[in-house]
Predict the structure.
Amino acid sequence: MTASTPPAPVQAFVDAINAADADAFVAAFTEDGFVDDWGRVLRGPDGVRSWAASDAIGAGARMTVLESTTDGETTELRFSWESRVFTGVSTAIATTRGDLLESFRILPSH
């Protein structure tokens, strides 16, 4: 994976987390978008907002993209995460549809 700037929809997701802006976080996703956190899938605006409240914004998260590679609508990210729920480095796959995020899948680290 080579370092690069993530596409705008992915960066909007990161910026919303770091600004603690739950409305911008939900707005970064398509209407049928989802977060998959190690197999725990939360779908649609209510599911995405729920994850933001429990694991991201509500947990005081800060996300720093370390590396990203984009192929078409798929971006692989390696990022550092600091929150009251988890602190460490993870890998995720983000897919976009148009100007929005369709999915954000955090891959298990094992």
